[in-house]
Amino acid sequence: MPPESAGSPATTALPAPPPPTGPRPPPPSLLAPGTQRDPYPLYRVLRERHPLVYDGRFGAWLVSRYVDVRAALADPRLVALPPGRTLAHLEGGTHSAHRAVVSPAFRGAALAALTAGVARTAYVLARRLAARQEADLVAEFCQWLPTAAVVAALGLPYEDTARVHAWCRTGLDHLGGHHPELDAFLRPYIVRRRAHPGADLLSALCTAQADGRPLSDDAVAGLAGSLLGAGGEATARGLASFLANLLDHPGQLRIVRARPALTAGAWAESLRRDPPMHIVLRRAVEPVGAIPVGAAVACLLGSAGRDPARFADPDRYDAFRTDSGQLAHGSGRHFCPGVLLGRLTAEHGLRALLTVLPDLRWVPGFRPVPEGLVSRSPRSLRVRLR
After folding, report:
1. Average pLDDT, whole number, for the chain?
2. Fewest CB atoms within 10 Å of the CB: 180, 190, 197, 290?
3. In angstroms, rounded to a whole number, what is the distance separating the alpha carbons of residues 26 and 365?
């Protein structure tokens, strides 16, 4: 495998499975007992002994080393699974054209509106907790802030945040998915933005063109769903792990509080160590080494982020690590469009909490417990506020 800075996705190659040398025990599986509780011992075994292996119980080839996961995410022969209509599912020139539409939408007035919306919503949520003694930041902050920010960015009514939030947790993920109720909700707004565009993100999608033609209503709804999915579950989980890491390291938190410019690096480090998505699935449309056409490939981001061949002391959270190398938002052509939203949510969310709740700390005796196999984060963050 060439170093991460060399070569192109088309010329990289995943490692070959080891040749048979007599009877061998079956390789470990992601579905083995205890993996959901603590996947890191399994990740270590996979990186050291089975860097490319087929997991029959899980139904996918497992890729676990950093350089291989990075290559797999950028390889055009491995496409998003299952088929869909979001940026991650589009290939070739179509993907490039659609992504070229989305990227500029996060600049200028749209970026300013998104930033202001995130900051304003973060302070509103933090102030609601100010009179309390204790709170659960997952249920009362992390799960609400990202969705409200995307609702504001798309120019949707604030009063609809609660039901959009519910849809984001029942059918949407970082790839957008397909949610009939969300589609039906968005259609009238798409019609209005086509007739009377504004400065919001939904207007930018409705008025943009790909290959000289406007995006279809289905494509606009799919892209909006992708952003809502990224701004809902994935970003909420990432924010929960981010706050847990800093609360677990009060010395680092004090430094970040005094120097807010360090927040972006602290966020990137949290995504490396504790990504919200531990497994990203791809499907082979061409043979990739030992991987046949049609096979599913599980890119183990949770393993790649703690690969000692790439990171010194990889299990340690270091908010000041100079090179996080995180892959939580993808790599190559499928870099997640929610990356900017996630960073803004982390920066302004943390700033609001530290400003409004300067004595924020764990409830005595509480320890956050990450849960999940594909998606992973603490279920609760019990904190003292005063």
Report:
1. 84
2. 180
3. 40
The residues with which 375 forms a beta bridge, in sequence order, are: 277
Element (H, E) at 214: strand 213-214
- Could you check whether the bond before residue 25 is cis, i.e. omega within 30 degrees of 0? no
Q: Among candidates 31, 27, 76, 47, which has minimal Cα distance to 288?
A: 76
Which is it for the CA torsion 249, 327, 335, 226, positive or negative? negative
Give me the residues of the chain with pLDDT under 50, please.
1-11, 83-95, 97-98, 105, 174-176, 332, 334-335
Return the biggest CA–CA distance within the chain.
70
Tokens 């400065």: give the residue.
199
Question: Residue 80 pairs with which residues in a beta bridge?
Answer: 282
Q: What is the pLDDT of residue 174?
A: 45
Residue pair 377/274 in contact by the 8 Å Cβ criterion: yes
Q: Record the pTM.
A: 0.83
N-terminal to C-terminal alpha carbon distance within the chain: 52
Q: Which domains are seen in the chain, by residue range?
A: 40-384 (1.10.630.10)
